[in-house]
Amino acid sequence: MNDERKSRVIILGAKGFISSAIAKKCCENKFLVINLSRQDIDLAQSSASEKLGNILQDGDSVVVGAAVAPVKNVAMLNLNLRMAEQVVKACQTKKLKYLLNISSDAVYEDSIAPLTENSLKAPLSLHGVMHLARELCFDTLQAPVGILCPTLVYGLGDPHNGYGPNQFSRLVKESSSIELFGKGEELRDHVFIDDVAQISMLMLKSSKAERVNVASGTVVSFKSIASSCLTISGSQKKIVYKDRNGPMPHNGYRAFDISKIRSLFPEFKPTLLTEGLKKLF
């Protein structure tokens, strides 16, 4: 192993959907990974900073993937900020090599143009407010800090059953029909979990103190995703259309310009949605 891979990578929230994928990818690439879950350290407790500080060593890299999400109320917002406070206190006691914060594209305001890393950060949800506040918390550290802002993540092991590839593939596997809001016409970007893990590993390898939006760079309608799920699986079930109870999220459009990923990591190739869906089945 070369010198940069001898340093330890401490992954917080290690049993989570994204963190566990990052841990797996780092292990495959010969990093020395220390997985910490809530069972090891409950970051919501006031004693967490001391416990984490006792584990951290000078030269460690830290991945902050621990969060209670999605944030639905003020209590959850405050809980996540307390967790961030404990992480910051612990990290301030050591000379870290790097900290990678897993944030979210929810920090950006809606835009008719593809979002970039320079897009206005003006969250319209408590979930987005939480991630933006945590970004500012971690930016107070002396260590280089990288920020990943994934868009809608899909893949095996997703715990949220989010509307889109995760939910649609599960419904098909259960021999159920897929229900779409309106005509399923919203155009959104969806990123495969392995891509998020790959970019995370590359960020850790290079210790880049950069903000990076993780997306595929392609928008597709929910109707198209549902149709692909049925086609790939060979299911004879139908798509059922439901009336909307409110306006389309993000005005029905949320695209990303992934030029920065291509510039920083030219070897990275986003997973095509059809290929990602095939892996789900």
Describe the structure.
- The chain is of the alpha/beta class.
- The protein has helices at residues 3-6, 17-28, 48-55, 74-91, 126-138, 165-173, 193-206, 222-233, 259-264, 273-280, and strands at 8-12, 32-36, 61-64, 98-102, 145-150, 152-154, 178-181, 187-192, 211-214, 219-221, 239-242, 253-254.
- It is 37% helix and 18% strand.
- Strands 2-1-3-4-5-9 form a six-stranded parallel beta sheet, covered by helices on one side.
- Helix 2 (17-28) crosses helix 7, helix 4 (74-91) runs parallel beside helix 5 and helix 8 (222-233) packs across helix 10 (273-280).
What's the CATH topology label of one domain?
Rossmann fold
Please report the number of helical segments. Answer: 10
Mean pLDDT: 95
- Span between N and C termini? 36 Å
Poorly predicted tracts of residues: 1-5
* Rg, alpha carbons: 19 Å
Q: Please summarize the sheet with the most strands.
A: 6 strands, parallel
Main structural class: alpha/beta
CATH class bucket of one domain = Alpha Beta
CATH architecture of one domain: 3-Layer(aba) Sandwich
Strands of the biggest beta sheet: in what spatial order? 2-1-3-4-5-9
Order of helices and strands: HEHEHEHEHEEHEEHEEHEEHH
- The fraction of residues assigned to DSSP E strands is 15-25%
Q: Characterize the overall form.
A: globular
Fourth-tier CATH superfamily name of one domain = NAD(P)-binding Rossmann-like Domain
In short:
With 281 residues, the protein is an alpha/beta fold.
Map the helices and strands.
Elements: H1 3-6, E1 8-12, H2 17-28, E2 32-36, H3 48-55, E3 61-64, H4 74-91, E4 98-102, H5 126-138, E5 145-150, E6 152-154, H6 165-173, E7 178-181, E8 187-192, H7 193-206, E9 211-214, E10 219-221, H8 222-233, E11 239-242, E12 253-254, H9 259-264, H10 273-280
Parallel strand pairs: 1-2, 1-3, 3-4, 4-5, 5-9, 6-8, 7-11, 8-12
Antiparallel strand pairs: 8-10
Helix pairs in contact: 2-7, 3-4, 4-5, 6-8, 8-10
